[in-house]
């Protein structure tokens, strides 16, 4: 955002559409690059999970369906099942309201997922360590989404814009996710 | 769109890049907030499904793989498998062509999915109630996508813009999805 | 991009915000329509896979869990598990850096996936033909993402913009994906 501001003051009197379009793309990137970073990290984690499962699978040629493989495969599937939900909510929250708290919550989610995958030691599929992990983070991101939409509707119909206040509150609230 | 128009007339002679950028973000939100709403609803539904499966799983400690659990888990997996496809097609259709019919189709899809999940009473996995539900809605959204791209290409190379007519036709066509 | 340029020169001296907003939407579409096209193709492929599984499932009423069905279902599940990852990385790479190489890599990924699904003839789930296919393409897209973010940060803090050079290099590098 800072870089756009600087550009703005520099090009205060240039109203060439070309320049405006270029600034637009920089502004868009400014508003999503943290989300892209978190998405990239989550993709790296996904690949790590998949390689882990593959290694376990090819490690023992005799019988492929050992309990360890079953558990790894199950943990991987649970992670993948909620992955699209997580991505959708992360991006919506980041675009509608503010990207920094959304990206922060996303990183915490990745840490929780890592813990979940490593610590998946239950006897049966989806038993002890919980089937749906990171509920609190998903709830926080959904709430951000909803608040963003409500704020947009208020801005459209009422004309009052509380976005700045809401963003400050959201940033403060996102630190609460660090509580165990 | 209305709010942007109003702002436009108000700021007709302000060509400050800062103002233009701010208007840009409001205009972007205007064009996606219905999609965000549908995405949010689908996330709530996903969490509902996952909690349902989890409850069934932890409800009976003796033997975890009862037929009821198997069926719930299978229905949940089928829903999750098509979820990313649905999201991708919903957003592409909404961005390329028009958000209102896309969001409407999305809501109908959610209703169909709810019915599918509740009514999943077949004997074997993916048998009676259909493996791929909501084919018609996915087809409608894909068609919207394709029409949007063709219109964009015609606008780029031919210079003729039929977007307004297409949007009216799409809105009318989306009501046909209500037919059983 | 060409169409925007043309429009730009035509409307060089029109600084009406309405016109700028309209140009903005055309410019956005110009930057994503190839990605939308690849997404649409991937959705068509997904539906093809799902119909294939459904046909195999309903084809034999006597016993639903034949080895052929198991294998098809497993191949479908592996494809779906990596689908959200693929979509996320494709769109991030396309938006952050350049859409043409990203879309090209996406099409190659779809071809690889088709080959994977058709050739899935291993004895056990996730055995011979690899559990995670298209690793090279996912790596290439992730790299594009990372380079795009680094370039944006350098532009924000350093002021130097190497995007043009990077895009040329990326386009050249994307042809290397054609190597078997």
UniProtKB/TrEMBL annotation, chains A, B, C:
GO cellular component, one term: endoplasmic reticulum membrane
Coiled coil: none
InterPro entries: 5_LipOase_AP, MAPEG, MAPEG-like_dom_sf, Membr-assoc_MAPEG
Molecular function via GO: enzyme activator activity; glutathione peroxidase activity; glutathione transferase activity; leukotriene-C4 synthase activity
Membrane topology label: Multi-pass membrane protein
Subcellular location: Endoplasmic reticulum membrane; Nucleus membrane
Superkingdom of source: Eukaryota
Positions of transmembrane segments: 32-51, 86-112, 137-157
Gene Ontology biological process terms in this record: leukotriene biosynthetic process
SUPFAM superfamilies with a match to the protein in the record: MAPEG domain-like
Keywords: Endoplasmic reticulum, Leukotriene biosynthesis, Membrane, Nucleus, Transmembrane, Transmembrane helix
Its job: Required for leukotriene biosynthesis by ALOX5 (5-lipoxygenase). Anchors ALOX5 to the membrane. Binds arachidonic acid, and could play an essential role in the transfer of arachidonic acid to ALOX5. Binds to MK-886, a compound that blocks the biosynthesis of leukotrienes.
Subunit structure as annotated in this protein's UniProt entry: Homotrimer. Interacts with LTC4S and ALOX5.
PANTHER family: ARACHIDONATE 5-LIPOXYGENASE-ACTIVATING PROTEIN, MICROSOMAL GLUTATHIONE S-TRANSFERASE
Protein name as it appears in the record: Arachidonate 5-lipoxygenase-activating protein
């Amino acid at each position: 955002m800072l870089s756009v501001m600087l550009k703005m003051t520099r090009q205060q009197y240039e109203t060439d559409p070309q320049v405006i379009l270029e600034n637009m793309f920089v502004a868009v990137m400014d508003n999503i690059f943290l989300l892209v970073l978190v998405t990239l990290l989550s993709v790296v984690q996904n690949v790590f999970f998949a390689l882990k499962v593959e290694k376990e699978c090819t490690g023992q040629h005799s019988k492929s369906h050992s309990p360890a493989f079953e558990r790894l495969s199950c943990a991987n599937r649970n992670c993948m099942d909620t992955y699209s939900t997580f991505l959708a909510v992360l991006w919506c929250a980041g675009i509608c309201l503010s990207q920094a708290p959304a990206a922060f919550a996303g990183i915490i989610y990745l840490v929780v997922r890592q813990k979940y995958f490593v610590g998946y030691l239950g006897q049966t599929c989806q038993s002890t360590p919980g089937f749906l992990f990171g509920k609190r983070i998903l709830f926080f991101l959904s709430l951000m989404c909803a608040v963003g939409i409500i704020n947009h509707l208020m801005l459209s119909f009422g004309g009052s814009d509380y976005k700045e206040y809401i963003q400050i509150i959201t940033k403060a609230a996102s630190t609460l996710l660090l509580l165990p």
